[in-house]
Design goal:
about 210 residues; alpha+beta; 6-stranded mixed sheet; 3-stranded mixed sheet; 11 strands
């Protein structure tokens, strides 16, 4: 029988979290508060997570194999569950992440610091937490790119960190549009290719008048 979840009404540190026994229920620590992880994710969630992880791993491995350097050559892609310590009171478990600084992986147990890319696949049970709480802590920690993937509506939302340290207005990517990442500027798959999504009907957008 697993242990009970640590008390939600207490304030915990990242050191507390990382020292909890292995049979502690999966959870995240955000600003010192414990948040239970969602129950087993849907098949769509797992398919999307696995497809993106595999595509990124293959792309990064190919670049390392070339030995020619360039964008993403020294980066490593990881997949949940993996702990990411963002600050003294925040430890999260993104669905997919890319880390390009080997020092952040040196302890061999968790990622220590902000990844270069974070991906969260939304579900009805976690969408509010991902869009509000986790987006805020990723921004504060300086994560350069955050992808929020919506399996139900079939679009990808890209949040990029600006020079002011804040996320700009998100870019929404339809299934047939290229997914352009600052981390891998010459890797331009579409969500449709990655996840098997059919093209979206964008006729309403195309008919709208240009903004003044």
């Amino acid at each position: 029988m697993s242990r009970p979840l640590p008390a939600r009404d207490e304030v915990w540190s990242a050191e507390d979290y990382l020292g909890w026994p292995s049979d502690t229920p999966r959870c995240e620590l955000i600003d010192g508060r414990v948040y239970a992880m969602s129950p087993a994710p849907t098949l769509d969630h797992q398919r999307i997570t696995g497809a993106l992880f595999a595509a990124l791993r293959s792309t990064l491995a190919e670049r390392r194999g070339r030995g020619s350097g360039g964008a993403g050559c020294g980066c490593e892609v990881l997949m949940a569950p993996v702990d990411v310590r963002l600050d003294a009171h925040t430890v999260v478990q993104p669905d997919v992440l890319v880390v390009c600084d080997p020092a952040k992986l040196a302890n061999g147990r968790h990622v220590d610091g902000a990844p270069d890319l974070v991906v969260e696949v939304l579900s009805p049970s976690n969408a509010l937490k991902d869009r509000r709480l986790k987006r805020r802590v990723y921004e504060r920690a300086g994560v350069p790119e955050l992808l929020l993937i919506d399996p139900e509506q079939r679009y990808v939302e890209i949040h990029r960190l600006g020079s002011d340290g804040r996320y700009a207005a998100p870019e929404l990517i339809a299934p047939q549009e290229p997914l352009l990442l600052a981390l891998l500027p010459d890797w331009q798959p579409t969500p449709g290719e990655l996840f098997g999504w059919p093209p979206a009907d964008l006729s309403l957008d195309e008919d709208m008048p240009a903004a003044p």
